[in-house]
């Protein structure tokens, strides 16, 4: 955009710090970056009130009958109500703008202006600020029959002019500010076809409310005053005066309302932001991820306005522990608050949890990730066989109960009902001539501990395999569907 106010006096760092301060008590903000009704939604994060409503000449959610409404992209030959009379509205401020157009047909024939029914004197109190950027670009043939057709208003109360700013003469560029429908400021003459900034700062002063007017960052005229009791506006129109008359002819952008009085320095900084094409609230992206991908839950990714506190957290999934952040959040704790100031990209890293919380012989990682058992329960399936034993010894499933088998063994493993495997004494022999050592071992089994029979360790179904300091011996034994088995060291 083109604006004569110098920006060089403010450093980049100063702009960033000012921008964060300007968001304090900002209760309504309209940046007109979207079409239709979305373009006049309140863009203050977390604020669901103060949404705008289009006035006459605009169809809901669509391009109005004439004029482009919110999300206007700019045009060198904009045609408003009269297609033959075009204006240059290509000089945009910060992103897209709200395009407002009027017709000579009547005092209320206009498009693009909107009302905010919740911005009332009661809601704002005696200390508040209204700020807006405006670009007056009237059609060349604006020759309506009444002054109300030709006057252009940036904002005014919905039904009165307790708050008001607009041109004070027909088809002119002389602006005036009003407070309490009584006091008006000295006129300010501003060029058309150029962006200008206005800020009305209202401040409690005893029984009165004072109004300080700023144009393009500098105070103009004397401070105005009205009895606070006379400030009873019920809503605010933007782009039109009370009751939808005196529709503006041009563009609006970066409209903000605070429920506090901005300082002169803040108004200057606010003007500098727009001069630089920087929105009051800029958006930054926070992109967070997890490594390994499924090792944890990451919260905080999204797009946020600057100055907004963003809760960020990395929560390890079962079987993992948080190791740290890489990228822009290196050195941060697992959970912290990031005040959005710039785009951020970070990865939360997790490592395997090798602790054994339930003492079943399996690490928490093996339980939760590999075997899908419970790291805090040593017997996930409740069959009285610890998870570690099922994985490492019995080869059974730790998630499918073997309770029936365990109960069978427990109920039948007694002297009256148990079968037995008896081991004959081990004999060791050595051939002195060859040095060969031989081992002799015989087993016998009984299903009822009365009738015994030898177990053939030479059969194909038997095996003797060295294991550590001993042997693993596998063989078929006499069996009964009723009996479990005990091992005896010798045959009775």
Structure description:
The chain is mainly β and 492 residues long. The protein has seven helices and 35 strands. Strands 1, 3, 6, 7, 9, 15, 16, 17, 18 and 20 form a ten-stranded antiparallel β-sheet that branches. β16 (208-215) and β17 (218-219) form a beta hairpin. α1 (12-22) packs across α4 (264-275). The N and C termini lie far apart (107 Å). Residues 1-20 and 57-65 have low confidence and may be disordered.
Structural classification: mainly beta
Indicate the low-confidence ranges by residue numbers. 1-20, 57-65
Count of individual helical segments = 7
Helix content: 10-25%
Terminus-to-terminus distance = 107 Å
Which word captures the global form? rod-shaped
Q: Total number of β-strand segments?
A: 35
Distinctive features:
7 helices; 492 residues; disordered N terminus; mainly beta; 36% strand; ten-stranded antiparallel beta sheet
Structure summarized in a few sentences:
The protein has 492 residues and is mainly beta. It has seven helices and 35 strands.
């Amino acid at each position: 955009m083109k604006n004569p106010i110098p920006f060089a006096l403010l450093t980049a760092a100063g702009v960033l710090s000012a921008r964060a301060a300007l968001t304090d008590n900002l209760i309504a903000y309209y940046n007109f970056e979207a079409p239709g009704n979305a373009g006049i939604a309140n863009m203050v994060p977390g604020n669901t009130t103060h949404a705008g409503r289009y006035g006459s000449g605009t169809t809901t959610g669509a391009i109005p009958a004439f004029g482009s409404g919110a999300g206007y992209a700019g045009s060198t030959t904009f045609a408003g109500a009269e297609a033959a009379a075009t204006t240059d509205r290509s000089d945009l401020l910060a992103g897209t703008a709200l395009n407002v157009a009027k017709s000579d047909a009547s005092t209320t024939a206009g498009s693009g202006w909107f009302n905010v029914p919740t911005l009332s004197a009661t809601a704002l109190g005696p200390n508040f600020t209204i700020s807006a950027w405006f670009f007056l670009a009237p059609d060349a043939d604006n020759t309506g029959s009444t002054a109300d057709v030709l006057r252009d208003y940036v904002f005014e109360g919905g039904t009165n002019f307790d708050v008001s700013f607009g041109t004070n003469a027909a088809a002119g560029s002389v602006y005036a500010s009003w407070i309490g429908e009584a006091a008006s400021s000295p006129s300010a003459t501003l060029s058309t076809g150029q962006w200008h900034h206005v800020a009305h700062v209202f401040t409690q002063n005893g029984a009165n409310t004072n109004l300080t007017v700023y144009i393009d960052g500098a105070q103009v005229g004397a401070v105005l005053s009205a009895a606070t009791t006379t400030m009873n506006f019920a809503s605010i129109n933007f782009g039109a005066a009370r009751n939808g008359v005196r529709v503006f002819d041009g563009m609006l952008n970066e409209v903000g309302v605070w429920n506090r009085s901005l300082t002169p320095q803040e108004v200057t900084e606010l003007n500098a932001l727009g001069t630089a094409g920087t929105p009051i609230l800029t958006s930054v992206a926070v992109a967070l991820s997890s490594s390994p991908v499924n090792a944890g839950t990451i919260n905080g990714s999204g797009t946020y306005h600057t100055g907004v506190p963003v809760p960020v957290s990395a929560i390890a999934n079962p079987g993992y522990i948080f190791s740290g952040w890489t990228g822009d959040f290196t050195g941060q704790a697992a959970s912290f608050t990031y005040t959005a100031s710039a785009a951020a990209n970070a990865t939360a890293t997790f490592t395997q949890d090798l602790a054994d919380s339930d003492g079943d012989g399996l690490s928490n990682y093996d339980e939760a990730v590999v075997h899908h058992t419970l790291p805090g329960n040593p017997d996930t399936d409740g069959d009285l066989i610890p998870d570690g034993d099922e994985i490492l010894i019995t080869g059974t499933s730790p998630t499918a109960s073997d309770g029936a088998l365990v109960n069978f063994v427990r109920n039948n493993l007694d002297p009256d009902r148990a079968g037995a495997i008896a081991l004959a004494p081990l004999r060791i022999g050595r051939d002195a001539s060859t040095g060969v050592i031989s081992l002799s071992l015989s087993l016998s089994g009984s299903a009822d501990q009365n009738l015994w029979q030898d177990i053939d360790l030479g059969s194909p179904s038997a095996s003797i395999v060295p294991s550590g300091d001993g042997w693993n011996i596998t063989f078929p034994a006499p069996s009964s569907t009723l009996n479990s088995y005990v091992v005896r060291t010798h045959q009775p």
